[in-house]
User: Which sequence fits this backbone?
């Protein structure tokens, strides 16, 4: 019996300081409960059958509301409620934002033997995001050191750097230059651009989620983004594979790319002098 809910951010982190309020159809408060460290909310207050409104608030986040229907079981299950950072709907203030590699990651996931996944990451990369007054005119430029690939296995990493895959001696850099940005949801954007990989340039779209902006401990301002896309290895002339049995390939034909970015706002020289 009672209220059940999970409170998360768009990228899946628990919001442990959230407060959940349940009101009945008259607007009267029936339950008020705090989320625990894992973002879970539970209450054993008996509930009469019928519709209820679930209101979730947390400092630094935009409030969210959902509807829960209580059946004869007496349980209001609100499922997972997603809270976005306050101001997370609009993009960061216009200007230049430099990617912070120490607090960012560029990872890949490939299927192995058709039953599991192998994850890798690039240790060396950098870039810059230019937020325009008209968000659709914003730009991102990034460069990755191809030889910095790390899957946790030295033999495999050496093979990935070879001509069978990245051929890092001939193509030491992977670059991405955006050509357009369009809104695809309240806090989601599609970034279109040119990806240069293994000597081949292809149009690639990133599914981007803006996670919010806030101050950092060093007096700066940071914006956070998460982006994903899928690439076909054949599109970039990486056709190596090994058939292990019954026509099954050892390595999947597609790669999932997962990018988590923190970008630091550039300081206007005039502001620096004034301070």
Assistant:
């Amino acid at each position: 019996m009672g209220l059940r809910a999970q409170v998360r951010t768009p990228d899946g982190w628990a919001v442990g300081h959230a407060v959940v309020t349940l009101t009945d159809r008259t607007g009267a408060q029936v339950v008020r409960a705090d989320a625990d460290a894992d973002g879970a909310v539970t209450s054993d207050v008996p509930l009469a059958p019928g519709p209820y409104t679930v209101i979730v608030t947390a400092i630094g986040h935009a409030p969210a509301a959902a509807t829960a229907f209580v059946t004869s079981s007496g349980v209001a299950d609100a499922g997972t409620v997603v809270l976005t950072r306050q101001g997370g709907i609009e993009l960061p203030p216009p200007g230049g934002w430099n990617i912070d590699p120490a607090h960012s990651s560029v990872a890949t996931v490939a299927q192995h033997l058709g039953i599991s996944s192998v994850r890798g990451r690039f240790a060396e990369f950098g870039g810059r995001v230019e937020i325009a007054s008209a968000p659709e005119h914003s730009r991102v430029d990034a460069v990755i050191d191809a030889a910095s690939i790390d899957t946790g296995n030295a033999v495999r990493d050496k093979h990935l750097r070879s001509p069978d895959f990245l051929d890092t001696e001939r193509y030491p850099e992977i670059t991405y230059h955006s050509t357009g940005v369009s809104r695809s949801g309240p806090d989601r954007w599609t970034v279109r651009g040119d990806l240069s990989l293994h000597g081949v340039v292809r149009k690639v779209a990133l599914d981007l989620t803006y996670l919010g902006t806030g101050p950092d401990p060093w007096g700066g301002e940071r914006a956070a983004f998460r982006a994903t896309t899928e690439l076909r290895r054949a599109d970039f002339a990486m056709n190596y594979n090994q058939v292990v049995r019954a026509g099954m390939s050892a390595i999947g034909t597609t790669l999932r790319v997962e990018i988590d970015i923190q970008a630091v706002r550039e300081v206007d020289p005039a502001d620096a002098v004034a301070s």
Remarks:
- The chain is about 5% helix and 55% strand.
- Confidence is low (pLDDT under 50) at residues 242-250.
- The helical segments are 154-161, 269-274.
